[in-house]
Write a structure and sequence with these properties.
single chain, alpha/beta, Quinone Oxidoreductase, Chain A, domain 1, 2 domains, 10 helices
């Protein structure tokens, strides 16, 4: 293998309009650990976590490479790898504490990698790993839902990447009634196509709309956009002993309004298993393989809506700009070709 590779990264956090916010780099080629795969990414997606890490990182003279989704081909394996072989097509989200996927070659632990869906292109597949794992863990690890589960689920910000996958999983693999919030007509159409039973506009009297659609109150909530106003609304809209999953990082959030109804709040971070090397880390491999099968069977659909072509800093900057706009429906992917 080559000793240096091309990658896209940054030296310090800068606004995305600055040409130095993401730059082309030459970095040492990764060496596989015992359970690592060396993958050539053919497509990567841009997630809000990419924006957060880029904006909040301090100076890095060598350059920091991010990227938390990829679809590509295994070109080498570590000495203890048992789940994959060179030549396999894979998709995965990677780890927050290792170099990211925005590189010509990428090292990733096999236990957080899935087999790429055969029916999907690399671009279509790259849209799915991070959002699928986050949605899966939210529904089935935290809320412990299953095919016989019923009740009502509110999905806040339904047109985003994770909610777009979570709506599909909830509709296809549970008996829940799904209410998705969407602030624009095109967003409402999108979440309806994905399977939401009802849509509401979170910009206008959310509490009043929920009283009409869920007069017996909500059983479950998933939110990727949390603030004090939402907490106050949920304190009234969720039944006693109901459950909420949050994935964002709201500053100074006061959760005391949830106490009187004994509501449970779950934090979800799909990086927890890899970051802390949990004993069940391989569950993410199984999750992705299940999602891959469901995509191949047509039970789930890719949430790719925008494809940018060109694996370079300028194209990645455009991807970041689109995500930072806050107007994305579904996912944006950067493909080599």
């Amino acid at each position: 293998m080559t000793t240096t590779i091309h990658a896209i990264g940054f030296h310090r956090g800068l606004p995305i309009d600055d040409p130095q916010s993401l730059v082309d780099l030459w970095i040492p080629a990764p060496e596989p650990g015992p359970r690592d795969l060396i993958v050539r990414p053919e497509a990567v997606s841009v997630n809000p976590v990419d924006i957060k890490v880029r904006q909040s990182s301090g100076p890095d003279e060598a350059g920091r490479v991010i990227g938390y989704d990829a679809s590509g081909t295994v070109i080498a394996v570590g000495s203890q790898v048992s789940l994959f072989a060179a030549g396999d097509e894979v998709f995965y989200a990677g780890a927050i504490d290792r170099p990211g996927t925005n590189a010509d070659l990428h090292a990733v632990d096999e236990r957080i990698v899935g087999h790429k869906p055969q029916r999907l292109s690399h671009a279509e597949a790259a849209a799915m790993p991070l959002t699928s794992i986050t949605a899966w863990e939210s529904l089935f690890d935290h809320l412990r839902l299953g095919v016989t589960s019923d009740g009502t689920l509110l999905v806040v910000g339904g047109a985003g990447g994770v909610p777009s996958t979570l709506i599909q999983l909830a509709r296809q693999l549970t008996g829940l009634t799904v209410i998705a919030s969407a602030s624009r007509p095109e967003s409402a159409r999108w979440v309806t196509e994905l399977g939401a039973h009802h849509t509401i506009d979170h910009r206008h009297d959310l509490a009043g709309q929920l009283r009409l659609l869920a007069p017996d109150r909500l059983d479950y909530v998933f939110t990727s956009h949390t603030d004090t106003t939402l907490i106050a609304t949920l304190a009234e809209a969720v039944r006693p002993f109901g459950q909420i999953v949050g994935i964002d990082d709201p500053a100074g959030l006061d959760m005391m309004p949830l106490k009187s109804r004994s509501l449970t709040w779950h934090w979800e971070s799909m990086f927890s298993r890899s970051q802390y090397q949990t004993s069940d880390m391989v569950e993410q491999h199984h999750q992705l393989d299940t999602v891959s099968r469901l995509l191949d069977e047509g039970v789930l659909r890719t949430t790719l809506t925008t494809t940018l072509t060109g694996f370079d800093a300028a194209t990645l900057r455009e991807g970041h700009r689109l995500v930072e706009s806050g107007k994305m429906i579904g996912k944006v992917v950067v493909s080599r070709s």
